[in-house]
Records
---
Amino acid sequence: MNPVAQKIAPAKTKKPLPIDDPSYLFNRELSWLEFNRRVLEEALDPQTPLLERLKFLAIFSTNLDEFFMIRVSGLKDQIAEGVREKSRDGMTANQQLDAIRERLRPMLDLQMRCLNDEVMPQLAENKIKIVGYKDLTKEEKKKLEQYFLKNVFPVLTPQAVDVSHPFPYVSNLSLNLGLIVEPTPGIDYGKMDYLFKSNRFVRIKLPPNVPRLIPVGKNETSFALLGEIVAANVGYLFPNMQTGKCYLFRLTRDADIELRVDEASDILRTMERELHHQRRFSVPVRIEVADSMPDKIIKNLTKSIGVTDEDVFQIKGFMNIPDLMTLYSIDRPDLKDKPITYSIPAAIRSQENIFDTLKTRDVLLHHPYTAYSTVTDFIDQAAEDDDVRAIKICLYRAGKDSPIVKSLMKASQNGKQVAALVELKARFDEENNIEWARRLENEGVHVIYGMRGLKTHSKVTLVVRNENNKMRRYVHLATGNYNPTTSRIYTDLGLLTSDEELGEEASDLFNFLTGYSYKADYKCLLVAPINMRERLLELVEREIELEKNGKKGRMIIKINSLTDDVLIRALYRASQAGVKIDLIVRGICVLRPGIEGLSENIRIRSVVGRFLEHSRIFYFHNAGKEEIYTGSADWMHRNLDRRVEAVVPIKDEAIRRYIKKEILDQYLLDTVNATLLKPDGSYEKIHAESKKAEFDSQMYFVGKDF
């Protein structure tokens, strides 16, 4: 627990509390763990379809992997470098690590109990099962033995440890078997007898290109585990030797790439070198071991790998739950969420040429409810349209098989000027983006690799079209990545417009990104790090002044994360002034709501459900002259100061009304997916008065047409 939490006492006082006291901030890392707890609760809910429960268990694990690779590794770096600076809430790095472990271990126990005692048994009842090797028939074992010899044995490389064989490098997130191998009594090893006088620890890496779940016989819904198959046939690797029991273990390493851009003459090659270096030399931060692994082997592993006892997590059951997502691909719609229908906005449906629609009106896109083909078709039409002269786009996470990138290549082949800013520093997508960058360059696209010291996170496309000998600009600005795959599971907003002012400023933004031009006086766009922080603070201060002058101060902010202390202090001031504030924060939130004299006018809820909430919306009442903004930025220091972000005002009155009434207000009514953040940092489920009164905001949007 945060050591300063005891200071919080919601005393009934009208005296304003100091807004800069660190005790009035939650710890960032612990707040993130609470978000992941809410993901886990989706899996714990027996009302969630069975394969969806498995999916949420896998997401919980994947989230944790990234948390350890980035956040925990960062704390360990601080300790190693002797950094004494405390977090903004007043905790040292060591205190944070201790608190993380204390908070996390009970959550892992919950996860494994859910998997072992509920999800897997219920899947077996539905004829989807993992069969233990010892429970297989002789015939099944024989078939799997042949599978092992043909598909697995040739690629296995056992690595023994002794004075001439140092402990092998264990790659990040790899799954490994550890065992003790010893000579067989009575065997004459001849001239090499001296090599076989002692026991040795051996590590076997399970090949990542072989499926973890192997179908048993012809039954495609019964599986044996690759690790158990290797363990049962490990004698083939060690003829004339005695092999002990095999134990699974898995290592997590630091994956936070520090790009030395200041020294880089070629950022593409520098990134490739950094990726290679990170794969080979990143520091270990966590080791997961089978709970049956003997202490002696655990101590040998921790000493050899270079982690502490506190970094060891004993897993009671299946290790690396995301591997079980093979089961999710089984065709069992009865065990999954019902598919939703995707719609196309009526204004686009009514015209064959999307540009004809955008000449007369703006179009709001609300994914995943709006089919993502609206975006891919917009870019593809631009690539094919004879009147289009140029396409410019920011690509942050395009995915592995991107139709958008293919359209950009086609546009270049069709003689259009195409510029793509490919953000090579997009975490965990670096290799994908390097590949896309090379392919785009080969097709004549002008590729820019981001900016020194800044990560380009904005989601903007600019299309320039010749209409009656006059250039007209069309803009798509969104909250989500240009990735059709993730668009089916993320909620995001996008705006399609031909607004002249927005088009001009989008051109200025791209000139900044590609040519280092500098426009400081954006009137329409909020651009980080140029003017966004200042404009957001002005908008908050305006609500404060309106409230002080007897007018209604009101804000609704929907974001993924809230950690920026400057904006948090502004929100505290607004609350103290009487401004009513609703924050819809999916993930990390370090602001403490509901404290008398500080934040009693702030309510914070998190919506975690079937879809990953990703849209960002900023609503300001402005004494009835409502203003709404949407775009790529969360309210975090990194978004406002270290990234290029773009947020756009919604000018169309009908779209503003729709966002307020049909989107924001509905999130505030949710009683299925929403939890309220309490002053002590815990989250409380919001319950309807009755089952009939339950309201699911995410499902409310299905079939909506704007």
Note: The chain is about 35% helix and 20% strand.
---
Amino acid sequence: MIRDGSPTPLGATPDSAGTNFAVYSSVADRVQLCLFDELGRARQSFDLTQSDDVWHTYLADCRPGQRYGYRVHGPFDPDKGLRCNPSKLLLDPYARALGGEFAWHDAINDSNDLNSAAYVPKSVVCSPDEPFATRPDIPWSETVFYEANVRGYTMRHPALDEVDRGTFDGMRHKAVLKYLRALGITSIELMPVHAFIDEKHLADEGLRNFWGYNTISFFSPSARYAKSDAVLEFRQMVQSIHDAGMEVILDVVYNHTGEGGTHGPTLSFRGLDNLAYYSTEPDSPGTYINDTGCGNTLNADQPQVQTLVIDSLRYWHEIMGVDGFRFDLAPVLGRHNHGFSNSHPLLEKISSDQRLGNAKLIAEPWDPGPGGYQLGQFPNRWAEWNDRYRDSVRRFWRGDHGAGADFAKRLHGSADVFEASGRSPSASVNVVSTHDGFTLNDVVSYEHRHNGANGEDNKDGHAHNYSRNYGVEGVTDDPAIIELRRRQRLNMIATLLFSQGTPMLLAGDEFGHTQQGNNNAYAQDNEIGWLDWSQLDTDPQFVQQVRELIRLRRETPLLRMSEYVHGKRETQNELIELTWLGTDGQAMTDHDWPEASAFTVVLSERSGDGEEAAIAILFNGSDEACAFQLPQRDDTGFWTAAFCSAVETVVDTRNAMLPGYSISLLRVSFVS
């Protein structure tokens, strides 16, 4: 039985008697709902009823598991941005799951009348799930992010059976969760898991999209990461991670889709309502604006796109259990035709949505478009990836002249970037390496990118990495170089965890994962991109040192201050002080900073009841040993070393000697 059904909610909504279907298209003259069996064979089709710009119907006895798609009849004039072609089977933008595989074929191009149904996945009706009842709710001040790729993290894990490798089930394996808990991270930031496809140039080269930044559905988890039921297995993974006391942060791509540029595949949005979903040139509606570098740009000004993004976020937060989101190329979400605005309606809707009230929001604050670099410009509720932190830390530790002053600003939580807008240090998500660029091991092993395996003549990826190889490009058996590289990796991780702000580790950096100098491994779904867990056995002490650093951060509130401190901050209940000292123990001046390669930062706190805590972090960014005069105490306290990256470090009550390229954290101990 067929009824008109309801225009709300969008998507396929089953009940005990059947399923309601509703899809948006403001340009269609006619929309057909097409049903398929599990083998992808067409079974029935139905015309939908129109209510304003939504097309809908209700099918009795249509149950979860039913595969379907849409065909849209309407104007086809690509030069005017009109691209309705009923020979192209289209995904439901609100589909909760996809069934079947995508294949590159002439039929997926809307310039012909070939039937595309055999070459595209089908939308799948899904049973509604209950919202997640509880979640860890880790405070920002305690958060330590850990960026991982589901497939890359699990494909070579020795504890996993072959069937679990590369899957959501692999990520929730007890051995994986035990390791992460022992490491001390609080929030697993997963690279994109929304359903995505491989770009044509990769398919032609026999490569696959490894990272997942080529989304075709904003509600469906990728079947690539599932053994059978992607929705169920994702929810089970999240529940297991929550049970282990950790959060799940999801990297989401609401800036473009896998439909690409003018000649890309027609899979969903383009065929439904091209001008609604995508930004096009004002005087040339057939030309896509490409602020993403991926061929198209989602039209954040369009109300339906705004609704789609909000609905998707709510679904992943409430139903799929995700605790926060990292927004890829986030300036796109705030783009008008005239440029970026942090008061853009879409950004304001995300920020103020009550149903997302306890979700962490993190921006990648740049895109390739005009005026696309917007670090520090996002709304107050947002945190942001801080590439200035990454570059400054790398430059300081490789010994760049004059790098000390900016390095100190980054240690301080980048107050120069975030404080003026009223945000706290936690807004700065501090990174020294991410999926995009060299791994930490490669930062100290390669001075040039080695991306030949990507098939782009080594022209892709960053040309400037602020890296250093210490005399040999790549792998070496020179013990002195090996030891120096190890210390530099430890220096940068220690800096990350001793800085004000929110730290993020790249998975594998804690044990020396390498991508063999590839700084753009987006197409390396192989042993270049997959973590080599055997590295744990090469230097198990390094992982233990990283655990200790994370523990030190967790147990030292002065490393996790909720407000910026300049000099002294005094309230009725406490006095917090931050000072910068030269190696002679005297306060740093503006004259000192341009030449500074070694210095100390001291943080102290005295509560109203007289309790006191103090730490001193000593940095030696030069290649020579350096003597430090320690801050003098006027009480019974004295300095003791809590961490030293170099075993040769010597600390007594008044002085310290740090070898070249090393860091130490000292704490005050009191004589009883």
Note: The chain has three domains: 2-124, 141-261+294-558, 566-670.
---
Amino acid sequence: MQATVFDDPVKAAQRIVDLVGKDLRLAAPLAIGKPNHLLNALYHMVEADKRLSLEIFSGLTLIRPRPKSDLERRFSGPIIAEAFKDYPELEHASALREGRLPANIRVHEFFLQAGAWLNNSPMQQEFISLGYASVARHLRKTRINVFAQLVAADRSGGTRLSLSSNPDITLDMQDYIASCRATGQPLVFAGELNANLPYMPGDAEIEQAAFDVLLDPPPPHFPLLAAPREPVPLDVFATALHVATLIPDGGTLQIGIGSFADALTHVLILRHTQNAEFRAMVASLGGQSASDAELGPFQTGLYACSEMLVDGFIALKRAGVLKRKVPVIDRSGKATGAEALIHAGFFFGHRDLYATLREMPRAELDEIRMTGISFPNTLFGQEASKRAQRVKARFVNSSMIATLLGAVSSDQLADGRVVSGVGGQHDFAVMAEELEDARSIIAIRATRTVAGRTTSNIVWTYANATLPRHLRDVVVSEYGVADLRGRNDRETISAMLAIADSSFQHGLRQEALRAGKLPRSWQPDEAMPSNVPARIEAALTPYRRRGLLPAFPFGSDFSEVEQRLLEPLERLRAAGPLTLARFALRGLLASREVSGEGAALKRLDLANPQDLKAWVMRGLVLGAMRS
């Protein structure tokens, strides 16, 4: 049976309803794999016909950020407008955010765009907490009857399509799809073609005949949303340097996305290409001096097995760090004769990643194997070959909060509101326990500062645990490494105190003493350096000035003027009322602008303020720039 091809999303949506019926239970991939035109057509059809119902299951729906203040709007507004230019926003997400979702449409997510839905009660109420590897099992139980995703056509003229960015859940649902068809249960597998999506070979390839409905909209196809590159502060580089000493040559690596992932990628490249400088940086932090610290260049190299293919893996490949290949085993368990450098379930990243994958020669592309999420995130299926390939695995993830007893919270606030989701963090922590020589590494910033108040991210207790303390392994902050595996509670507390900020160590120690978890005689290691931000700045600022630790190690999406504004705007975000008053007074009393300030004020439309509020904002910005 051949797929029915449409160029009109409304006709494609009507075909889906005709095949499935009035009760639509639809699963769509996370991030860039969503078929926006098709989903919007279905939304409008169900919105207009109350006899129909639509239930959507998905994750990481990318929505247009909303600036929280006038100053943020002045800076971020043009950047957001450019990022979302020509992108058809998802109607169900807009309706949900604006409180106008019809009663016959429900939306469930298992992973949220970080922080975007914190104050949206409908989303918080419909959120389903699932680890990544558990999603397919949940969809089976829910009796999903529509699978819909963005797909890529073979530019060489072949008849196959590629699941490209998102074979993650779709491949793990193929047995369910086959079972439904064999038993005559209504089910539609729908795809929307997009020429901007890279064609990924291997497991991600699928016969066009596997689809029931294909939407091939007239060009131009909408652009793929990209993750902006974030600046990397020195404290994040410090954490990355500590983590880099835990990555063994010849091992297996998993990393995520964001400034910490960029920092770790960069310092791993420095370790390989500028080893003396890398060792000097580690030494300047009072870092790993143990005999088993990993400090040398990569002779054998690394193999990547990660839920997410990110820009960092391409950079590591180009630098010669990622070069350990493993045999490719197909989904039936047979060796194909091919070799892989990277196995991943989905990709999302900077626009450069998409361009690189689109332009990559086929021989190189064959070494990047996009596959079902059960492959990178579990040992189920092909367990023997997975164990043989995943030697010395290091699964590196970030977190918001860690307790003195080693529990980690990465997805939810203490009041129950979901920030993001579990994702694959729990999957990798469990796998680290099950593999002989693997470790789960959690990176955390020791403190955070908002509105002038600095608090510790290392706490005594916390109401949520993404990773319970029985899975505690390695926690790393800018102040060092806490190796917690197999340690008793007293030893765990001591190790976590050693990587906490000095301002909070006494209070944390008192909490542990009150609970009877430390002996009264306990004293911190006298050789432990003072854990204060000034020490990190003093150690690493010389390397930043020499260009070895740039704020944007892989390039920036911001103009030079915007880059100059980033740090002052961050100072304003972190400042309390008294500091803000000082900034404003200093800026308002400034008699003349110094070099670069005029361009910065013009960028924020504050060069010629027209009212008192704008004058105050101008003063705040100038004061923060001069502090």
Note: The first strand starts at residue 4 and ends at 6.
---
Amino acid sequence: MSKMTSVQPSRIRPGKNYPLGATWDGRGVNFALFSANAEKVDLCLFDSSGHREIERITLRDYTDQVWHGYLTNARPGLLYGYRVHGPYDPNKGHRFNSNKLLLDPYAKALDGKLAWTDAHFGYRIGSPREDLLIDRRDNARAMPKCMVVSTSFDWTSDRKPETPLADTVIYEMHAAGITRTREDIPKLQRGTFAALASPQMIRHYRDLGITAVELLPTHGLVNDRRLVELGLVNYWGYNSIAFFAPDQRFLGNGTIDEFKSMVLRLHDAGLEVILDVVYNHTAEGDHLGPTFSFRGIDNASYYWLRHDNPRFYEDFTGCGNSMNFRHPRVIQLVLDSLRYWVQEMHVDGFRFDLAVTLGREDNGFDVNGGFFDAIRQDPTLAHVKLIAEPWDLGLGGYRVGGFPPGWLEWNGRYRDVTRRFWKGDGGLIGDMASVLTGSGPQFAHNGRRPWASVNLVTVHDGFTLDDLVSYNDKHNEANHEDNRDGANDNNSWNCGAEGPTEDADIRALRVRQKRNMMASLLISQGTPLILAGDELGNSQDGNNNAYCQDNEVGWVDWSPERIAEFGILPFMQRMIALRHRHPTLRQPLYLSGRPIRDGDIPDIVWLTPHGVRSTDQDWNFPEARCFAFLLNGARPSLEKSETYTPTHLLFFLNALHEDMEFTIPPAYDYNWTPVIDTTDDEGVPRQVTLRKGDKYNVVCRSLVILESAEIIQATKTGSTR
């Protein structure tokens, strides 16, 4: 260790115990660190390279379990870390080790990369007593350093889109992988926040029709040692260690202003920014994991330890540890982080990884738990988009539909039913009807609306859309886990050949199947989520767990050849435009099957392929693979006298392996025009006008949408025809 310079007494003042973290006020920096069980805290300052510790200052003031001090004349750019003193007694839940430099949980920026070394472990690796004996090696040179930042930024022109939930279409992407292969973006810029919001990418988002980008984790992270030794990385980023700091991988210019500029440009284009956040666990792993931050600051407060043996961690996440949301300081940390990203970084919402862990109390998941109560009353967070991944790996961890009012949830049931239906499984038309109409049995309670269901067919975790129709089995050999990782039950179907094929019929069927599933997604009530690259025909070569593939496997393929041969971009553009054009597809209330007004047709009518209303016998037919329905386009309420044109929509779904003639329902005397047919490259059907009783041939494994419009004279008090 380098020689410490002496501390001038006048330079360090008591400061304040709030806000937590390092806060620059224009004259100096206030440092505040929570630790209920520490005995002493040292603030360590480093030179600009981050390699040499130039000063060590003891924070002598301790107020309400917060260690604090004010450093005069300190400025943004200062590099620092902490050494925290206290008992090393794993059997009592304490793992203090002042030999380890620790990251501030509130650090707004990190500088430098972590270099793996045994010195990062608080215990003696290889000791017969495992983690019970302390390791006294210093790890500072191998640690990234925290950086004091200025949060100033000119947000004067920023206008948040505030897209209504009913109108939202989410596009999930990896912040770097989305641009790595775009040759029309400068090579040095690819893979950065700047590239993600480049004119080329914004043009693609707008042409496609999405309203929000959802970024895989962008918090500061640690690459797992095992992956690094295999020449891989934690590409997806679900290994967070710094909940306030943008991931250095995506900062081309090295400053947090690049993230802010990205948000500003996306907002200018009318696009919202949603962050995938990982608060359920940290990168420190289980009891044999390294000590980077929380473990060395106050292990017993931050982590959920086993009641019968606090040496070990409760692991609801499959990642070795679980954050302890029973502790008020953990709730404070997460809410402070969320508020920071909303207030200082201007993001529009969050998707919470393994969100059930955030609601775990002593007796299991509690929909009225402390975290949910705190976020519900928070004036900053109550109005941003909150999306839960509604499961974790703990007991009773699958909670789809079980989150509080105000939350949206990833709907895993939607994914499974839609995949199985188009794969050709029988007896699913009732389940398919349910998910197409917003999954009411799961979500229609406590005033929740159809948009609470985030509908998805593919996401980062699993097959891409192209792989879903090209592989029966996962092919994850590149992950070096003997193909054991990733889900085994994917409800995928290769259409007759495993992987790439020259068979023209199989290739045509695969493209049609992709259109079928995306068409289903975009006609469903709820909030659609699209995986970036699916519209381009992107493939991961059958890898359904590409979490460690920061290469061509994990990147989105923008090659014109791939797009031309396997993409469905024009179809997707047409389908999203159809959704935006028809409020019928974005209902604010659950469909009831009852008339909208006296004498009118129901808001939804379920039909057999023969054009008559479905009966219980039709719904319960075990081999059923096709059905139809009609959506009434009339408005449920009118604000003023006007003439308007309600557009009714008629849908034919045929998952059979043979063509089926569908009958235009004889009970409704409208002219119908086909507007979408998944047998066509762009979804454009043959131009015909159909009337009641006419037949329409729906090709095997395809979906057809028809429109019918009528003019109605409307007033405040009702309508006449």
Note: The domain at 590-720 is CATH 2.60.40.1180 (Immunoglobulin-like).
